[in-house]
Amino acid sequence: MMRFIAFLFAICLIVGTSRADDKSSKPNVLLIFIDDLGKTDIGVEGSSFYETPRIDALAKSGARFTQFYSAHPVCSPTRAALMTGKMPQRLGITDWIRPESDVALPQSEITIGQAFQEAGYHTAYLGKWHLGHKPQQHPAARGFDWTKGVNHGGQPSSYYFPYKNPQKPDAPNNVPDFEDRQPEDYLTDVLTSAAIEHLQQRDRQRPFFMCLAHYAVHTPIQPPKNLVEKYQVKLARQKNQESSSEGIQEGSAISRRQQDDPAYAAMVENLDTQVGRLLDELKTQGILEQTIVVFTSDNGGLCTLNGKSPGPTCNLPLRAGKGWTYEGGVRIPTYISWPGKISPQVLDIPAYTCDIYPTLLSLCQIPPRPTQHVDGITLAGLLTKSSSSPESERTLVWYYPHTHGSGHKPSAAIRQGPWKLIHFLETDRIELYHLEDDPGESRNLASKHPERALQLQKELQRIIASSS
C-alpha cells in the first residue's frame, strides 16, 4: 500500500512539474494599446517632426504592417473588437460610449483576457477601458486578474497630478489609483511605472498577459512641460512653413496640413520614451525573447475637426482622420515583435483589430475560439513563416452610422483587394477608390467603374445586415 501511495505521489509530481513547465514555456504577451495615434505619427512611418526612436526600433525588430486597420474610426467600437475578435456592430457598439450610457461590452462575450486567464496566464490591464462604466463592466470583471488606473470615461481629466478635475470629484474621466504620486509625475509615465512595478512583483512561475492601454495621445493635449520648447525650436527652424490654420477642407471640417503642433509632438515623444522603458524592463528581467510585444492604436490620428481649427496632428498622405472612414481615420500603426520567433519583416497585406485575438492565441499555442473571434483570422503562420499569406482579396468593413465632432456624417465602408467604397448613408453618396493607385483617396472612380461600385455596395449592405 505504501509503495502504491509513493507511486501515485511520484506521478503527481511528474504531472505537476509537466504542467508547470507547460506554463513557464509559454510566451508572455505585452499588448501596448495607444489612444488616437495616427499611422504617420511614427518616425518609421514617415514622420520627420515627431521623434519616436524606441517605437521605430520595435517596428523594425519584428513585423511592421503597412495596411493594418482599426475596426472602427472611433475608440469604444475598436476596443470592443480587440476584446472579442468581432466586428463592433455585432456587439451593438457603433459609437464611442457616453458617460452613464447603458451601452457596454456584452457580458456574454469571452474576452481575450478571459481566454488567456483560462489558459493559466496571469492577466493585467492598465489604463483606458471605455467599454462600460459600471464595476461589473470593467476589466476586473472581464478576465483581468489585476487592474490599475481604469477610469469610467474615455479620456483622462488631466495628464497632470492628481489626474482629476478638482471641480468635479466624481467626474467619469478622473483617473483613480494614483493618489500617492508626486505633483510632478506625468500620467503616461505613472501608468508605465505601474506596469513595470507589477512586472517586477509578478509570479514568475506563470506567463503573463498584460494590456497597457495608454490614455495618450488623446485630448486634452497636455504635454510634459519640459519637452515643449524642444519642438517649438524645431518648428521655428523648419523651412517652408505653412500655417495650419490654412488647413485642408473636409466637408464642414478642416484637417491639419502638416505635423507642426509642439505640444502634441511632446506627448508623442514622451509616449515613445515610456514604450522604451517597458522594453528595457523586459530585457533587464531576461524575458524579452520570451515575450510577444504588440503595439497598436484604436483609430487614426485626430487630424480633422469641425469649426475653424484642425486637430493636433496630420495624417497626410492619408485623407482625414479620427471619426472618418477615410484611410486617415482607420489606418493605424501596428507592430508585432517576438525576438527569435518573428523575423524582421514588412507586411503589406490588409489586416485589422479583430485579428489580434486569434493571432495571439495561436502564437501562444492556446486553442482557438472560432465561435468567439468570428471576424478575426490568425496571422501567426504569416508572422512565423510557417504558412502562406492570408487571402489578399480579403474583405474588411467599417460601419459608423453616426455624426462625429470630426465633421463625419454617417457612413459605411468596404475594402476588397485594392478597391474601397464609402457609402454616406444620409445623402446616399457613393465614393470608390483604388488604394494601390490612390492611397490618399483623391479620385472618386464610382462613375468610371459603376459595376464595381454596385458590386461592392451590395456586398457592404449584405455584411452590415448579417452582422448588425
Automatic annotation (TrEMBL):
Q: What is its EC number?
A: 3.1.6.1
> What does the organism's lineage look like at the top?
Bacteria, Pseudomonadati, Planctomycetota, Planctomycetia, Planctomycetales
Q: Where is the composition biased (Low complexity)?
A: 241-255
Q: Cite the Sulfatase N-terminal domain residue spans from the record.
A: 27-364
Q: Does the keyword Nucleotide-binding apply?
A: no
Q: Please report which protein family the annotation says this sequence is part of.
A: Belongs to the sulfatase family.
Swiss-Prot/TrEMBL cofactor(s): Ca(2+)
Q: Which domain of life is it from?
A: Bacteria
Tell whether Hydrolase is among the UniProt keywords: yes
Q: Name one Pfam family in it.
A: Sulfatase
Q: Which residues form the signal peptide?
A: 1-20
The segment annotated Disordered runs over 238-259
Any idea which GO molecular function terms this record carries?
arylsulfatase activity; metal ion binding
Query: What protein name does the entry list?
Result: Arylsulfatase
Name the UniProt key words of this record, in alphabetical order: Calcium, Hydrolase, Metal-binding, Signal
